Amino acid sequence: MDLPKVAGADAAALGVTADTPSDGVRLPSTTVVAAYALVAALFASAMPLLAYAGSLALFGLPHVLTELRYVDGRFGSRLRSGEGLIVLAILGLVVVLRALSLARAIDPSDEYVAELGLVAVLAFLVVPDLASRPARAALAFLIGATIATGSAVAPWVTVVVLSILHNATPVGFLAERFAGTARGKSAIRTCAVLFVLVPIAIGVGLGSRALTALGLYAPDRAFESAGALASHLRVFVPAEWTSSPIAPHLFAASAYLQLLHYGVVIGVLPRLLGPRGTPADAPVAPWPKRTVLALCIAIVGIAAAIGFVHDFAGTRAAYSLVASVHAWIELPVLLWALAPRSRSREALA
Q1: CB neighbours of residue 149 within 10 Å
Q2: Alpha-carbon gap, residue 88 to 100, rounded angstroms
Q3: Fewer CB in a 10 Å sphere around the end CB: N or C, the chain?
Q4: Residues forming beta bridges with residue 6, ordered by sequence position
Q5: Model-level pTM?
């Protein structure tokens, strides 16, 4: 039997076989997804600090590079536009601000305010592209206004909230990639359970209480340079809540979301890109071939992991410069995903 045509392209050219879905993307099986989520939930509930610090050390930098490659490939046409160049310029300013803060040239609190203000501009920048969809344009404006208000009223709380929400951004990439398809609806239903219901259960302490009863709860266990859990709570918990009994549970829920984030970015997003040069993979940067890139990412990841284990605080500070680019670029590209798409783009979506 001849292979079917896929969106006007030859199926074989897209790597489609008789066992591959018609869109050419083979996603992890339900069993693999469920097993990964279960292990992540148990790990984060039992040892939240190790789940956070360990996964950051092992997968932090690799996931940043992997996601930047995906964003560049999937949204390259947008990044080539005038708005895209402005986005890249703003991200450059964010990196400069963080570097100045790390060098103690500016006060960290002032840096947070300025950085959030720039992030708000990223949301406002997309509003004109959504003009034909007033409700979506209003959403982009509301997001920008909320971030701008947060930067003025409660910058650290705003940073914490955005840090938590950042872990759910792969859901947006999945929704964009499979928009209007049965696979998209199935993926969103699965994400609703894994990214909403499970972290709520962890956040109210169900996991830690059960593991405490089994003698498996060790919240401060991690490698030496990571320190104690109490010194990291503010990463995912507002300062006013860090002394609350629920704070470790909220941290554990966020550590679980971080593990899911890394899993989807590294294990799923690379599968969603099409052949090089198509609308599904038209990057701006001259990325190497996938095998070479994977090897480079692995080498860089090992070096970063060694740095984290040796000096967690110092390496995390340096890592934040790169992480800021990948975290904030998600906002405009996911808002761009709400804009009307051309027929050619829809054909290979």
Answers
A1: 13
A2: 19
A3: N
A4: 9
A5: 0.88
Q: Which residue has the tokens 């208000």?
A: 149
Q: How far apart are the first and last CA of the chain?
A: 25
Question: What is the number of other CB atoms lying within 10 angstroms of the CB of residue 59?
Answer: 21
CB atoms closer than 10 angstroms to residue 330: 19
CB atoms within 10 A of CB 38: 12
Q: Do 270 and 66 meet the contact criterion of CB atoms below 8 Å apart? A: yes
* CA distance to 183, 230, 261, per residue, from 168 (Å): 18, 24, 7
Query: Nearest-CA neighbor of 264 among 93, 16, 63, 18?
Result: 63
Using CB atoms within 10 Å of the CB of residue 108, give its burial: 0 to 12 exposed, 13 to 18 middle, 19+ buried: middle
> How open is the CA angle 323-29-279, to the nearest 5 degrees?
55
Q: 245-262 as b/e, with b when 16 or more CB fall inside 10 Å?
A: eebbbbbbbbbbbbbbbb
Residue whose C-alpha is closest to residue 138's, from 241, 76, 146: 146
* Tokens read off for 46: 């039992």
Q: 9: which strand partners?
A: 6
Model confidence pLDDT, tens digit, residues 172-230: 999 999 988 888 899 999 999 999 999 999 999 999 999 999 999 999 999 999 999 99
Q: Which carries the bigger pLDDT value, residue 263 or residue 345?
A: 263
